[in-house]
Specification:
By secondary structure, the protein is mostly beta strands.
Length: 391
């Protein structure tokens, strides 16, 4: 009797009988094909640990690899496949970010101001502009064509200067940044321009660099000594009374003054002053002349006490010792006053230096008129010149 009975048993024809012995060749085929147990063929078990191969079994006795696991009779067996993960959703780039410093705007005087802010383009090509006006409706844009920030840039500090503003007027502004992801509108901020200086009464000052200190004029009270006010930092533009004292030994200040009783913005004159301490003086009788009188400095009696001793060993060394100085660059009617002379300009850059042996005036640009207090002599000193008004 053969291993598989060839008799026709009706519907069971061609199928192995229960308990039938599987031929050795079939068992070897199952082992070679990856150890597949065929459905409906009891006893044809895995013969190796290899993963199953694709089989085709037209009968219980024949199996052919074709890429899928099948059962007997040529009917494919169901297989389990893992679907690939869905693609990550596309996240649109974020809109740019805008921010403003605490102050937001730097008032530059009676008619101008600098708007300041920062833009983070979030990696996108971005444009920005400031909207401004007297109300929150704005109505004006600067620059007129939005400025560009290249793609991939980090946070960029931006600024724009407004000119031809009205004195003592409040303005509103905000920063707007736009990219392909949309537009971002910054918060509303406001600033107020300074009033015009008043001849003989007030001037406007603005810190330019470093640390500038200011001392208000002393308060005079009947039957009481004048009370000296403390020095306080000058952190922004402000209007100050004539008679105030400015300490610029570690900074630079710009000063604006009026030249007529009814001055306009065009009538103002300005100058930069540094490296010294001075008091601001101005009277209506001087036709707009603003005098900066040097104050403070080193104690003359202590430093220069032996400078006038005949044939003193230290006289030569002490003669040029600097007690105080003031560096100036101005346009308009300004005068700097030392201990022994003063220098008046209309547009120049110069230094006034009090030394043990007198007051030195040194001109770097333009020309100044030097007045010697002792002799009432006046001389014109031009660029590169130096003059000593002796003590």
């Amino acid at each position: 009797m053969s291993d598989l009975d060839d008799r026709d048993d009706g519907p069971l024809a061609g199928r192995p009988r229960v308990g039938a012995r599987i031929p050795r060749a079939h068992r070897l085929a199952a082992a070679l094909l990856g150890g597949v147990a065929l459905a409906g063929v009891p006893g044809l078990a895995a013969a190796s640990s290899r993963p199953p191969r694709a089989l085709l079994c037209p009968t219980a006795a024949v199996c052919i690899g074709i890429g899928v696991v099948v059962s007997t009779g040529g009917v494919p067996a169901p297989t389990t496949t893992t679907a690939p993960p869905p693609p990550a959703p596309l996240v649109p780039p974020p809109a740019p970010l805008v921010s403003l410093p605490a102050q937001g705007a730097r008032v530059l005087g009676s008619s101008s101001s600098q708007l300041q802010g920062a833009v983070d383009p979030e990696g996108q090509a971005t444009t920005y502009a400031f909207q401004w006006g007297r109300t929150v409706e704005y109505g004006h844009t600067v620059p007129s064509t939005p400025a560009e920030i290249a793609a991939g840039s980090a946070t960029v500090n931006v600024s724009q200067t407004l000119t031809d503003l009205s004195p003592a007027t409040t303005y509103h502004f905000r920063l707007v940044a736009t990219s392909a992801a949309g537009a971002t509108y910054g918060p509303d901020r406001s600033f107020t321009t300074l009033p015009l200086p008043v001849l003989g009464k007030t001037v406007n000052v603005m810190p330019i660099s470093g640390t500038v200190l200011i001392q208000a004029p002393s308060k005079h009270k009947a039957k009481h000594k004048a009370k000296r006010q403390p020095f306080v930092p000058l952190t922004q533009s402000r209007e100050i009374p004539v008679g105030s004292t400015l300490n610029t030994t570690k900074g630079t200040v710009e000063l604006f003054s009026a030249t007529a009783r009814h001055s306009t913005v065009n009538d103002l004159r300005s100058g930069d002053f540094s490296d010294g301490t001075f008091q601001v003086r101005q009277t209506r009788k001087q036709k707009g002349l603003t005098t900066l009188a040097l104050t403070g400095g080193r104690d003359r009696a202590r430093v220069c006490g032996s400078a006038h001793e005949p044939n003193g060993a230290t006289a030569a060394r002490l003669s040029s010792t600097v007690l105080r100085l003031l560096k100036s660059s101005a346009h308009g009617r300004f005068s700097t006053k030392g201990r022994y002379s003063s220098a008046t300009v209309r547009g120049s850059q110069w230094e006034t230096i009090d030394q043990c042996d007198g007051t030195v005036t040194r001109v770097e640009r333009g020309a100044v008129s030097v007045e010697v207090f002792r002799t009432r002599r006046r001389i014109i000193l031009r660029a590169g010149g130096r003059f000593l008004a002796e003590a």
